[in-house]
């Protein structure tokens, strides 16, 4: 049963592998070939799985894939979704099949993992500095002449390392490098246009390298003051655009097109508008968005931010039909030790806790027709490594053995806790297993 | 090269597996058989690895193994170290070879993973409620008559589920169940001695089950007021002891001995003293400690707490030679974008951030003789998914490409971020790879 398109990736090896007893979420005492998961007729609400279990709603994934495809088409921008969010080959495949230009990644091991599954074009949206990592990626480029990799630099030392290794690596093509423009007080990246210009000259002159574009990350500007955010993001994007004109005027860009890349999961509409407006350069501009969290959205931080994005988009867009949360973690009530307290079989090892704690959505007693929504007063206020503390208002019927469905905030820090996640239909029938490669 | 004893576990399969490019920490562009890691002559300080990389100092592991073995011998208690900390078969093996009575685990999948590697006795220090999990563990017990499993219960519903499944499972022996005594306002466990007594009667009378002992977790009482902690822990342990006498007087225990288990990684000395003093029951008492963090210790929370423990132990113990931090995460400086700020290639995906952020210990420029200790003012004050922000006082020489070694606080939430960790000698020569099974 193929639910998600595979984008042509090499996923058969994963589907053929034996899932071992002890794989979180799977109720197996014997090894099970992964492609057999879909025919087990497991249903999460029937308590057929182990708990906790991480599930992805297929209908929401498909909706979000289509949403983003339409968004990119509307603005004539391309998407290299940040793969570090999920690190799931099957989800990479679905993204590529839905028109993604490539996959963005954050580290050399992530690039190697993606390449192994067949991803053909990667934007490494990070400085590449460690010599062993540089060597491993150059070996990949040497052995696979069709593999495309773009990397970042924000320092002369970074450029020196890349050039020194690339020049003698025999990869048969220059290594495309984007200069990173940063933001004062934030993360990496040149802090001034002058610094960025100087570094761009260094890259353009370096043996083995090619200045392929400019990268920035406006997502570092997200704060609680959203109106101020929008102003700051637009100012930053204007700087990127200005730098592009300046570098182009100096003839520093070396590739067939000029990549301008930004776009976390909160303000990518602003990026699409700003970079879509950069025109009149000596060669085509390719605006590359990088949102990673659009695919699954969440029930917290990103759901709010993309709702605001939809509002900015207005009626022409999908205000009434925005990105949908796809990722849930279901656990079981292990204990009801006191009135008002349920202890769940889910902890820091299972669900994000960095931005917010998981949001308890629903309780389900197997055998009941539907899960029951939990009231606002029912909330998780603490997690240990393997347990969550669900506080319950008076009158909420939650017993030992009931199932509790939770939304999460920040998909990146939930995906990395699950080697295998289960795709489910809207009735929580398990359709297939997907992998993560963290 | 065997550095750690293997405890007789089935580790050859792991050592024979092909480590794939993309495995965090490994500088490989081609698959590498795991047992070949030790002959690559990688040295972390020579920047031979990928960064970040998680390393365990073999000398510290061996020291801590011996320390705990001596501790248990001194108090005549046994250790079932909490395996959820590391979930590493190789470390389980070393613990078993150093006299561990069994391995404690927190979830059914963890039990299945440990059993697969050859662990023969598990204390599941948690309620076992999900029917699929119960079935999977009963299948394990049925298929392996020599496998020993102890589980917890704190509710009649939990007992009903265990009994209903165990009675008809054909496992040929009763399932040993410990009643969990809890603490008001804390996690699972019966809240009063009366409740625990009633539940113990239920367990003792349930088909397929055997009342094997009492479990509690004094670690939930750790607070910033350590003097008060000690009082509260001792009071709680006295309750466990009183309950043991009461249940024994009623003849409820069913096994050959009475398990009394407690002991996180902070106050296990108090547990050893308290349970070692329970005498005069109808059958032998077996005090089972469960510390998981002693093996690697850390540079934060647990290092402090075990130093206090050593102080309580006085001169007769190892005050001058306590548990040593074994776990470090090394990353590389990706960017020096501003004075006073270095961006490291290590983030929430790589190091604990739940109790404290990583502690920057040392900086090393490959080629230098030794790493240089970082001053107290050099500290990580923020992490993103894949980056850390290292703040630097004036005059500290840190450049792009330098390596930064960090200690962590709370090993459990670092181990689960690393499928493979590297054992190193005191000069950071890589000796072998070990696995985690999260």
Automatic annotation (TrEMBL), chains A, B:
Q: Which domain of life is it from?
A: Bacteria
Arranged from A to Z, the UniProt key words for this protein are: Lyase
Molecular function per GO? lyase activity
* Residues of the D-serine dehydratase-like domain: 326-425
Family matches, as SMART domains? D-ser_dehydrat (SM01119)
Q: Which InterPro entries match?
A: Ala_racemase_N (IPR001608), D-amino_acid_metab_enzyme (IPR051466), D-ser_dehydrat-like_dom (IPR026956), D-ser_dehydrat-like_sf (IPR042208), PLP-binding_barrel (IPR029066)
**Hey, what's the signal peptide range on this chain?**
none
The family line of this record is: Belongs to the DSD1 family.
From the Swiss-Prot or TrEMBL record, give the protein name.
Deaminase
